[in-house]
Design a protein that fits this description.
By secondary structure, this protein is of the alpha/beta class. It folds into 2 domains: 153 residues, Undecaprenyl pyrophosphate synthetase; 40 residues, no CATH class. Helices cover 45% and strands 13% of the residues. It contains 9 helices and 6 strands; from the N terminus they run ααβααβαβαβααββα. It has a 6-stranded parallel sheet with strand order 3-4-2-1-5-6, with helices on both faces. It starts with a helix and ends in a 15-residue tail after the last helix. It binds 3-methylbut-3-enyl trihydrogen diphosphate (IPE) (2 copies) and magnesium ion (MG). The site of one 3-methylbut-3-enyl trihydrogen diphosphate (IPE) has 10 residues, from helix 3. One 3-methylbut-3-enyl trihydrogen diphosphate binds next to helix 3.
Amino acid sequence: MLNKLMRKKNILSEGSIADQIANVKSRQIPAHVAIIMDGNGRWAKKRNLPRVAGHHEGMKTVRKIAKISNEIGVKVLTLYAFSTENWKRPKLEVDFLMRLPGEFLNTYLGELIEENVRVEMIGDLSLLPDHTKKAIEQAIRKTKDNDGMILNFAMNYGSRAEMIRCTQELAKMAASGEIKWEDIDEDMINSYLMTADLPEPDLLIRTSGEIRLSNFMLWQLAYAEFSFTDVLWPDFDEACLLSEVEEFQSRSRRFGSVEGEEPV
Ligand code: IPE
Ligand code: IPE
Ligand code: MG
């Protein structure tokens, strides 16, 4: 309870960041952390700024969180940056959001390369403006040989669109006789999702107090631990991430079994 209150109020658990890092590193680190970065608009509104100022500030949080995640040994960090539903926003805001990957990568790609981070993305790249596509493709190309943390941006990503695409591919192969319908299993479905090469998320974090998935990784999150924090994305910092990991480490993941009992 106290833990929860401290997290809500964004109060550090006792000790410095260095202590917190040492503490989380002494226990199991979630291999894949997925984050729904939410609350940029409300962060800006609170300061009488335009919504896009919140998106711009949020970009700095992306850098911070990527760095600390890499430092503690997270293998994959997936960040939900733009959903298939976000096209419904005002054109000016969408245009601004489409410029952010270019700006982010112009500013930080050098550091990410130094830190051995590999940039990847999930989502339908084909519908993005050329300049956005180019910036992302270039970052993917320039970091493809890095073997450190994967920084995976979900950009124009929607879980339902992903599942439809997968279903269509499998149906096509079944119709042409390339596979038998009864061979379709979890592994085959996994291999036709955009996350085919990634482990499933262990920890899902959503900022800004909204308690929903907004079409994010519906299949992949089947056994993830969920955490919803009131902190707005531009205010989410290293200490917040470390507290989330500490909380994750205190949970018992049973995957349907009974703790301490061997299967019969
Ligand atoms: C998250 O912040 C960023 C994107 C969805 C692109 P929002 O823009 O959704 O911020 P709120 O929810 O309006 O505060
Ligand atoms: C989810 O946030 C999408 C991203 C963070 C990219 P939204 O702010 O778009 O979600 P809703 O509309 O509140 O469900
Ligand atoms: Mg939002």
